[in-house]
Amino acid sequence: MASFAFADHLLIAGASENPDTAAEQTPATHLDPSSDAGQLTALLADLETFRADVRQLITESSGGVLEESDILFMLKRPHGFYWETQAPFPELIVTNGSTLWNYQPDLLQLTIEDWDPDESELSAQLLGGDTRAIVDDYNIDRVPVADNGLEFVLRPLDPASLYERVILFFSDGLLESILLINTNGQRTLWEFYNRQINEPIDDAIFNFVAPDDDLLDVIDNRSPANHATDQL
Question: What pTM did the predictor assign?
Answer without folding.
Answer: 0.82
